From TrEMBL:
Pathway: Purine metabolism; GMP biosynthesis; GMP from XMP (L-Gln route): step 1/1. Its EC number is 6.3.5.2. Homodimer. The active site is at C77, H160, E162. It holds the Pfam family GATase. Keywords: ATP-binding, Glutamine amidotransferase, GMP biosynthesis, Ligase, Nucleotide-binding, Purine biosynthesis. It comes from the Bacteria. GO terms for molecular function: ATP binding; GMP synthase activity. It catalyses: XMP + L-glutamine + ATP + H2O = GMP + L-glutamate + AMP + diphosphate + 2 H(+). PROSITE patterns: GATASE_TYPE_1, GMPS_ATP_PPASE. This is GMP synthase [glutamine-hydrolyzing].
Length: 501
């Protein structure tokens, strides 16, 4: 399958770029400059933008892997600076920079179907001050800055064609993908599913597979694909770690059974609480939960003589933990990627690793999975373990389950939950004085959170109507004896993350 490879230099818009190209029907993958590998199916390479300056000491360079690999390159912003430098041009810090909407005049001979002047979206302080030999300016901003150049094959833009605010941006990307790279449109989810089923058959052979099933969208879709490929050789394992939402274990198991997949429901709650005893550091808690998951999976796999572990890891999990590698700080270890133990006996099977969440959902629809399983809110593998701040125990889990279930019920009944991407309650290790029935009370503080997001990478808090907040607060403080105070979290991501730990 023809593919365009995006090399990620840390731009905010890298994922968007990959999305745009897939929306054109062409498969596209993202890799860091270190991880990028040349492969024959790659028809073109895009160098993304990024926060660094190419002339800075230690700045990420032009990928060595591309030396002698004759495919067209498109550079965007930082990528344009890299390409300019590589071909012998010069990049310097500009006097002012260009940020936001900027008019650009386009070379009409190169772009026949695009107006002479377009509005583009810029975000740069550096600029190309001297063009490489054999390159020609193909776009210039109203400030006189080079906004695009090309040597006839490779092409570079200072603005971001992948951002909606750039007029005709999609046409410019299409021009590169189809006219320059000659990529063919053969990326279709249904074709992807068929290919994956064949691939899983080949990889697994006559072995057996166990799969972590949480009831979430990702693991459900991964399981249906795998069961199509290996049939009865697949067994799903739902781990109840005691940190699920109230009644979630019962509901999830029922829903999953309706898929016709063999399912084992393991109650490992005592084991998880035992392992978590005395631990209050968030990273340590995440690592322990990740390891305990694997211990449970390995134990079940041994009983069944299985050698593969299926996980519903998706693209954003990988990108986030990629972001948790060399080029940036580690924020938190997601249990299924960064939280895995170093040594594992099971071989990992991750068939939807390359997909975005909405693609996973669409694939789920095309596989005929119940909509109720596909429209669920994301729920983190460590569950309430990262929503009980500080040390976790079964009593705190019980209290938080009650609070969370009241909050969710209020949101559902008011119709507000349909507008929210993710919502939950957090139990704080803080006690507060109150007065209940004329007596002094001294109870837990809980925080409510509701956010909107598309991929979970950024999020903004949801403006819940005051009457809904009031109802939630009153039902929680009267329905859960141990709770004395309710607060609402009004922090976006960034600077916060969605979960509190
Ligand atoms: N309680 C659980 N039992 C078994 N496996 C689990 C459990 N929780 C998480 N997993 C495994 O970890 C993977 C990652 O969890 P994650 O929450 O990102 O995905 P998901 O639960 O499938 O989907 P969603 O993001 O919609 O919740 C899952 O795909 C699944 O394989
Ligand atoms: O499967 C998961 N394992 C984890 O360890 C994990 N940590 C956070 N999340 C979910 O990921 C999204 C982003 O969360 P953060 O802003 O807290 O990083 C949100 O949707 C979180 O609920 C996890 N999911
Ligand atoms: N958005 C970008 O890629 C910016 C590139 C570089 N950091 C600059 O400021 O010019
Ligand atoms: Mg989940």
């Amino acid at each position: 399958m023809d593919r365009i490879a995006v090399i990620d230099y840390g731009s905010q818009y890298t994922l968007l770029l990959a999305r745009r190209i897939r929306e054109m029907g062409v498969f596209c993958t993202v890799a860091s400059p270190e991880e990028f590998k040349v492969e024959s199916e790659i028809k073109g390479v895009v160098l993304s933008g990024g926060p660094q300056s190419v002339y800075e000491e230690g700045a990420l360079g032009f990928p060595k892997q591309l030396e002698g690999f004759p495919v067209p390159i498109m550079g965007i912003c930082y990528g344009m600076h890299l390409l300019a430098k590589k071909l012998g041009g010069e990049v310097r810090s500009g006097a002012l920079g260009e940020y936001g909407l900027t008019n650009v005049s386009m070379d009409n001979e190169r772009f026949r179907d695009i107006p002479e002047e377009i509005v583009t979206w810029m975000s740069h302080g550096d600029e190309v001050t001297s063009l490489p030999a054999e390159c020609k300016v193909i776009a210039r901003s109203k400030n006189g800055i080079t906004a695009g150049f090309s040597n006839g094959r490779d092409i570079a833009f200072q603005f971001h064609p992948e951002v909606n605010h750039t007029q005709f941006g999609t046409n410019l990307i299409e021009d590169f993908v189809f006219n320059v790279c000659n990529a063919s449109r053969n990326w279709k989810l249904s074709a992807f599913a068929e290919r994956k089923v064949e691939e899983i058959k080949r990889i697994v052979g006559s072995s057996k597979v166990v799969g972590g099933l949480s009831g979430g969208v990702d693991s459900t879709v991964a399981a249906v694909l795998t069961s199509k490929a290996v049939g009865d050789a697949f067994t799903g394992i739902f781990v109840n770690h005691g940190l699920m939402r109230k009644n979630e274990d019962i509901e999830v198991c029922e829903a999953l059974r309706s898929l016709g997949i063999k399912l084992i429901n393991v109650d490992a709650s005592e084991e998880f609480f035992r392992e978590l005893k005395g631990i209050d550091n968030p990273e340590e808690k995440r690592k322990i939960i990740g390891k305990t998951f694997i211990k449970v999976f390995e134990r079940e796999a041994n009983k069944l003589n299985a050698s593969f572990l299926l996980q519903g890891t998706i693209y954003s999990d990988v990108i986030e933990s990629g972001a948790a590698s060399k080029n940036s700080a580690k924020i938190k270890s997601h249990h299924n990627v960064g939280g895995l133990p170093d040594k594992m006996n099971l071989k990992l099977l991750e068939p939807i690793r390359e997909l975005f969440k909405d693609e996973v959902r669409n694939l789920g629809y095309s596989l005929g999975i119940e909509p109720s399983l596909l429209t669920r809110q994301p729920f983190p593998g460590p569950g309430l373990g990262v929503r009980i701040i500080g040390e976790v125990d079964s009593e705190k889990a019980r209290i938080l389950k009650e609070v969370d279930s009241i909050f969710m019920d209020v949101l559902r009944k008011s119709g507000e939950s349909e507008k929210i991407w993710q919502s939950f309650a957090v139990l704080l290790p803080v006690f507060s004085v109150g007065v209940k029935g004329d007596k002094r009370s001294y109870g837990y503080v809980v925080a409510l959170r509701a956010v909107n997001s598309s991929e979970g990478m950024t999020a903004s808090w949801h403006e819940l109507p005051h009457e809904i907040l009031r109802e939630a607060s009153s039902r929680i403080t009267s329905g859960v004896r141990e709770v004395g105070r309710v607060v609402f979290d009004i922090t976006d991501k960034p600077p916060a993350t969605i979960e509190w730990e």
